[in-house]
Specification:
Length: 304
Amino acid sequence: MNKAAPGSLLGIEHLEASEILRLLALARRMNPRKPRPLLRGKRVLLLFYEASTRTRSSFEIAAKSMGAMTTLVLSSGSSIEKGESLLDTGYTLQAVGADVMVIRHPNAGAPLLMATHLDIPVINAGDGMHEHPTQALLDAYTILRHRKTLKSLQMAIVGDIYHSRVARSAIHLLSKFGARITLCGPSEFLPEVATSLAPGLHITRTVEEAVRGADAIMVLRVQKERLAGTKLRLQDYISRYQMTMARMKLAKRDAILMHPGPIIRGLELTWEVADCPQSVIVEEVHNGVPVRMAVLAKALGKAR
Ligand code: NCD
């Protein structure tokens, strides 16, 4: 098996803290409103096997604001529908001249497989229940706009943690910097070995305990079909885990409320919480662009 091309970003788990800090510093220097031809003539291939709004559009805008060309290939409407394998699709897209591939796939490990067979850098835009590294980077970037440091940050993550690549990448990133992370959700939604995932990881039974004194709260989307696989009815989930203003008040006064989106108002959070002054949900989306600019620039050897 080959090694992934330099500049590939497959996950947060194996990144050094210093590499994360370098990417965040580079993102701070990026301004999508002031286009720079840093990636002029480069071809960014966006290969999406799963639905996406934020990740896809922000990668595209990030690439275009640095002068790159983008091509979007969706699984529906491409030869993937005809049964072409992942690797054959990868070889095809490399052959048409892609310089970097951004891939989202329902199976964990798909970006790694691509990266070890292709010669171009591969960026993971979310793979199954594994990782979503650019989301963790934009979350860290967002937190650091509101807090000086990630060290000792008290972070509560509430919802379907087990199925969430967003939570997994966030846990890897935040624990590298000494954050204290509390997980809360129905037992079916908690990783079995959660506490061994990272030092400084706690599980609480109630949302109230998780949120008390938190600097940041991350609420995750709950899929109704997954809820159906638990003992909880929708109404029980709402009454036990929904983020409400009353629960938010248990956190620090200036705590921020995060959510990777898409949000389902009235389920994992109330309408009021989604729009409250502490909510940085829209800011997270906004910050996704400079962060993805930095990741693309690094992938293409233009990180200076
Ligand atoms: C998430 C994803 O696809 O992993 N969304 C995102 O990229 N911001 C979260 C989700 O779908 O619940």
